[in-house]
Amino acid sequence: LKTEEEQLKRRQRDWQIAEKLETGDLLTFLSNWYNQPLFSSLKQHPNFEQMIKIRQQNNPLELAKSLRHMSTGCQPSLWESLQHNQVPLLLLVGDYDHKFKSINSEIVTRCTEAKLNVIADCGHNIHFENVNEFVKNVRDFF
């Protein structure tokens, strides 16, 4: 997030989400969470239901704590530092994830060491939706 205002809005939103985790049923929360358009391609994956069962094993209180203390709203903006980065940076994004394609495209314009690879037929969770392509990209990078 670029500005303090964006960070504040994100922290407020994440606190609201954390409250839902603390006070509600985890399965209901997961169902609502994955109904967001961001996850539409993930929901089509044949192992989606298995993933939900695994996620149900998480501790909702710890998830809430993570949101409150480690969300992007709590992290400092590094946008101005990107131009000084000298470490190779691999950016992977799903083709259907328009928001993160845009963000990562901007990162590439600011950071000469950044390489952006767009993974076809994937949304926000490329590591789950196409694990083989994800692993191939990471291996090729290293």
Task: Explain what you see.
- The protein has 142 residues and is mainly alpha-helical.
- Helices cover 56% and strands 8% of the residues.
- Helix 1 (4-23) runs antiparallel to helix 5.
- The protein is globular and about 45 Å long.
Structural descriptors:
142 residues; mainly alpha; 2 domains; two-stranded parallel ribbon; 8 helices; 8% strand
Task: Please sum up the structure shown.
The protein has helices spanning 4-23, 26-33, 40-43, 48-55, 60-70, 98-110, 126-129, 131-141, and strands at residues 89-94, 114-119. With 142 residues, the protein is mainly alpha-helical.
Main beta-sheet strand count, sense and barrel state: 2 strands, parallel
Cross-sheet strand order for the largest sheet: 1-2
Number of structural units classed as domains: 2
Q: How many DSSP H or I helices?
A: 8
Radius of gyration, taken over Cα atoms and rounded to an integer in Å: 17 Å
Q: What are the segments in which pLDDT stays under 50 over at least 5 consecutive residues?
A: none
Strand runs, count = 2
Q: What is the terminal-to-terminal distance?
A: 27 Å
What proportion strand? 5-15%
Mean pLDDT: 97
Share in helix: 55-70%
Principal-axis shape equals globular
Structural class: mainly alpha
What order do the SSEs take from the amino end to the carboxyl end, as H and E?
A: HHHHHEHEHH
